[in-house]
């Protein structure tokens, strides 16, 4: 589930941080200055396909090139274009979890591959993009990760649609998810961002995000946004707002009460049976044979009582019941990165959420507060159409638990990921 959520966030991030028309325009001019006319024409065509304020100017530049070269431009003949993207790599995983009475430390790995073909359609200042995505994960040493409870493999097949215009991004999609340990499930996601004000390279607006999985959580957030976009140098974004989460929660108190009620009835029955000395001797003789002759009546009673208690515990059929838990609190998503002229980018990000329970199965549960945070740094190098990356990321979770739940739920958990891989788009 975690991996699928990350895939959805990465997909949205790729849209938000895709090159602007201005940046591609700049690359085209650099190719033109270097004398690579073929590359310049191709890059000018890329810039025309993106929404932005220079569309008409770029079309005029291309028209002049086509006339001079005696060719018919692809952008004049068809508004359709095709892209093929992918992401392949490895995540090294380390997980630490602690509670009042126990600690867990786990290690593992995740090999993954994501392939996504896109069909784009440009119309004026609007770009429509249709994508099909296939993502697979293969977890290594997951027998050593019982707390994370990872499957040997997961597979996700999805579709998405994006609409990109001047100051506007809309992205919606759906995924069908399958794994070794879980049944087939469906997840839906959506992102809408609107720019309201621009000052140079700084853009201000609002964004709405939502994610739903039919066998898991529902999440949504409303943000005020700031983005800075530049061809080289500092870039960044800040999303500040409120986040809502909802998921099924086990009614632990009711389960314990049902369990104890059933167990008490079975133990009462066991007390009645334990008073039957013939039953005790029969049990001893069937399981210990002639050794019973050397045992005292107290020893035989004790063996029989242990057997009756074990039978009673194994006969309890209490089933957990679930209710809907809801959380609300402030949320921050932030990212800053520096683009060097050597095609190297350094990036740092911080995502935070502090949640308060709006609704839970009991009064003690409603006192729980949780803090989740993601902290990470990445380095990208883009020598050509592919982008190599290496980084470290930590996902931190902390629960402020009331006394009753201190030994029921872990108080803290930290997932550390070493990420390495390659992304491409052709």
Q: Can you characterise this structure?
A:
- The protein is α+β, with helices and mostly antiparallel strands.
- 27% of the residues lie in helices and 50% in strands.
- It has 8 helices and 14 strands.
- The chain has helices at 2-16, 21-34, 37-49, 55-69, 74-77, 252-274, 277-288, 297-315; strands at residues 80-98, 103-123, 126-140, 153-165, 168-179, 185-199, 202-213, 218-228, 233-250, 322-339, 344-359, 369-381, 386-400, 412-425.
- A 14-stranded antiparallel barrel has the order 1-2-3-4-5-6-7-8-9-10-11-12-13-14.
- A hairpin with a 4-residue loop joins strand 1 (80-98) and strand 2.
- Helix 2 runs antiparallel to helix 3 and helix 7 (277-288) packs across helix 8.
- The protein is elongated and about 110 Å long.
Q: Give the topology string: H per helix, E per strand.
A: HHHHHEEEEEEEEEHHHEEEEE
**Which runs of at least 5 residues are low in confidence (pLDDT < 50)?**
1-17
What fraction, in percent, of the residue positions are helical?
Answer: 25-40%
Largest sheet: 14 strands, antiparallel, barrel
Principal-axis shape: elongated
- Structural class based on helices, strands and sheet pairing: alpha+beta
What is the overall number of helices? 8
> What portion of the residues fall into strands of 2 or more residues?
over 45%
Tell me the quaternary state. Answer: single chain
Average pLDDT figure? 85
How many DSSP E strands? Answer: 14
Distance between the termini: 29 Å
Radius of gyration: 30 Å
């Amino acid at each position: 589930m975690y991996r699928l959520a990350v895939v959805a966030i990465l997909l949205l991030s790729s849209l938000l941080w895709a090159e602007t028309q201005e940046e591609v325009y700049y690359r085209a001019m650099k190719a033109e200055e270097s004398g690579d006319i073929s590359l310049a024409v191709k890059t000018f065509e890329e810039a025309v396909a993106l929404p932005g304020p220079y569309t008409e100017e770029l079309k005029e530049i291309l028209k002049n090139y086509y006339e001079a070269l005696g060719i018919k431009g692809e952008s004049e003949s068809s508004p359709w274009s095709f892209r093929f993207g992918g992401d392949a790599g490895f995540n090294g995983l380390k997980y630490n979890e602690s509670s009042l009475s126990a600690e867990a430390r786990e290690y593992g790995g995740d090999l993954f591959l994501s392939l996504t073909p896109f069909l784009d359609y440009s119309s004026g200042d609007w770009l429509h993009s249709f994508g099909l995505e296939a993502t697979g994960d293969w977890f290594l040493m997951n027998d050593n990760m019982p707390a994370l409870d990872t499957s040997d493999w997961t597979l996700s097949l999805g579709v998405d649609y994006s609409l990109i215009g001047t100051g506007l991004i809309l992205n919606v999609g759906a995924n069908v998810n399958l794994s070794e340990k879980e049944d087939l499930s469906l997840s839906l996601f959506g992102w809408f961002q609107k720019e309201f004000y621009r000052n140079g390279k700084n853009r201000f607006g609002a964004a709405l995000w939502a994610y739903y999985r039919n066998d898991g959580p529902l999440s949504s957030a409303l943000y005020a946004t700031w983005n800075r976009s530049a061809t080289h140098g500092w870039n960044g974004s800040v999303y500040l707002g409120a986040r809502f989460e909802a998921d099924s929660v086990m009614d632990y108190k009711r389960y314990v009460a049902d369990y104890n009620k059933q167990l008490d009835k079975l133990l009462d029955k066991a007390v009645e049976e334990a008073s039957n000395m013939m039953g005790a001797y029969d049990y001893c003789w069937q399981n210990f044979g002639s050794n019973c002759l050397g045992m005292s009546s107290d020893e035989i009673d004790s063996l029989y009582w242990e057997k009756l208690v074990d039978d009673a515990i194994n006969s309890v059929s209490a089933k957990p019941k679930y209710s809907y838990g809801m959380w609300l609190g402030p949320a921050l998503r932030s990212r800053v990165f520096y683009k060097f002229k050597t095609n190297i980018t350094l990036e740092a990000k911080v995502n935070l959420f502090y949640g308060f329970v709006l609704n839970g199965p009991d009064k003690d549960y409603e006192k729980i507060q949780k803090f989740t945070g993601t902290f990470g740094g990445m380095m990208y190098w883009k020598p050509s159409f592919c982008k190599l990356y290496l980084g470290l990321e930590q996902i931190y979770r902390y629960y402020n638990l009331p006394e009753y739940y201190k030994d029921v739920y872990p108080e803290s958990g930290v997932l550390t990921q070493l990420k390495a891989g390659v992304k491409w788009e052709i």
